[in-house]
Amino acid sequence: MTETRILAPDPAGIIEAAAILNAGGLVAMPTETVYGLAANAGDDQAVAGIYAAKNRPAFNPLIVHLPDLAAVERYAVLTPAAQTLAARFWPGPLTMVLPLRAGARLSPLVTAGLSTVAIRLPAHPLAQALLRECGLPLAAPSANPSGRVSATRPDHVLAGLAGRIDAVLDGGACTVGVESTIIAMDGAAALLRPGGVPVEDIEAALGQPLLLPGDPATPKAPGQLASHYAPEAGVRLNATEARPGEVLVGFGAVKGQLALSETGDLLEAASRLFHVLREADALAGPGGAIAFAPVPEQGLGRAINDRLRRAAAPRP
Ligand code: TXA
Ligand code: MG
Fold it and tell me: What's the pTM?
């Protein structure tokens, strides 16, 4: 057991977080999407610590977080189409899978031995400040035990990882609330995971449709398990009313005990999603069940529905 410290979102907190990372430790870092469990992506032992703290299957590669494009050039090759997306969406909730640059100093545990690397420039001011202060590429999966609900507040991080990581940098609640959109850009542009940047916006920027998951030409994102984001309670989707014993989570016109968004606002629903999943889980209690009202399959709704389908999938 390690004592997990909570670091304040001020210069002293950022300096302390950077020192822990430079010493090979683990820090939960706020980003605009979800909290990431960060470690030096160039340090095998530090990266192994992420897998251990999360109980994560070792074949699942990690996203490398960087402060700016100059840093990206050290680790990956930006094709012209990738440059277009970088100019439009970075920093922000977009991850691009890019060809790994020859000689890039990254732990093979980060890339899981692939010839590609997933890269993101987070927009959150604390993530930016920490990346600049520590001067390291930071590998960071979501800061939750593997397979469980992602963390969008410091108390969510502590609920899953207290005693297993060195510190949490306290950035309060994440604004976007769902993970980044992942696009493969090492060949034909393909959607690997819907997320914080709507697919429609990426297609508009590229001027062409993306290959979608399920298309035979789309590469499979390693680690996109069907069951994921699992609360303790069972989950039912597209519910318009609660069955006996269920906690109904409403959206728009469908009213429940809780709501993703009373007004049917997808931005609000995304930012509240993982918090509401946790609240519903606590309300449902042992052996309980959660029912979710339908959410439209457009814009951020695609990312929300992707997470809800995984939360509802049969558990391994
Ligand atoms: O918003 C986010 O993306 C958050 C914050 C912390 O940045 N991070 C996050 O990481 O969601 P994680 O580890 O939960 O999800 C990363 C996904 C993995 O499921 C993996 O399949 C995919 O990224 N991935 C990473 N490297 C890849 C690669 N080289 N090729 C294909 N997929 C990759
Ligand atoms: Mg995750």
Answer: 0.92
